[in-house]
Design goal:
It is a single chain. This protein is mainly alpha-helical. The chain is built from nine helices and no strands. It has a domain of 163 residues: Transmembrane di-heme cytochromes, Chain C (Fumarate Reductase Cytochrome B subunit). The chain is globular. It catalyses: nitrate + a quinol = a quinone + nitrite + H2O. This is nitrate reductase (quinone). GO terms for molecular function: electron transfer activity; heme binding; metal ion binding; nitrate reductase (quinone) activity.
Amino acid sequence: MNYYLHQFAFQFYPYIALAVLFLGSWARFDKSMYTWRTGSSQLLSDKGMRWGSNLFHVGVLAVLAGHLVGLLTPHSVYTLVITAPQKQLLAMVVGGVFGIVCLVGLAILLARRLFNPRVRATGSFGDTLVLLLLLAQLLLGLVSIPVSAGHMDGSVMIRLGEWAQHIVTFRAGAAEFITGVHWVYQAHVFLGMTLFLVAPFTRLVHIWSIPVSYLWRPYQVVRKRPATLRYGPRA
């Protein structure tokens, strides 16, 4: 039974989660376009919003970028410039720094959601659930750092990378690479897939709407209207 559960969790569940992410996001955009938003509560209360949002987004974007590069770069490629133990140490340091930054921001946002009466009254169960899932995922990632310190040869990082690369290239045997690794890594992977699964039904869907075009969008030119237009013609 444990074998079949393991196979489901790390061989089949990732494809279910990713299919729901892509198809669910497409369906929501097609059927409920006006719900495709972050649902910001800044107008209700600005206290803590700026610090919490900025710290959270800087941290989470850096962590996500590190995961994508670290997991999806083949071992034969990154060893041209860095060894597996060095890569693991780099991931632990950078991930730890930005993970703590993200944790501080997330704690501020979660405190607003739970203890600010106006924000709590207008929020939904899904809003709170997403923050709690993100908190659990972030804590698992931070806990994995001292666990990784117990094996600095980079072998587990290689196995996790092979698992991710097998999944994205639709190869069988992906689950075998996670067999026997510490439960923290397994829980971190499984919860990460679960976040993909729930994303289309929560505010996480706005990850598809990152305003990258703002980087090259020209400045808006705002001019004052003539007095006749502002106040109407004089009698």
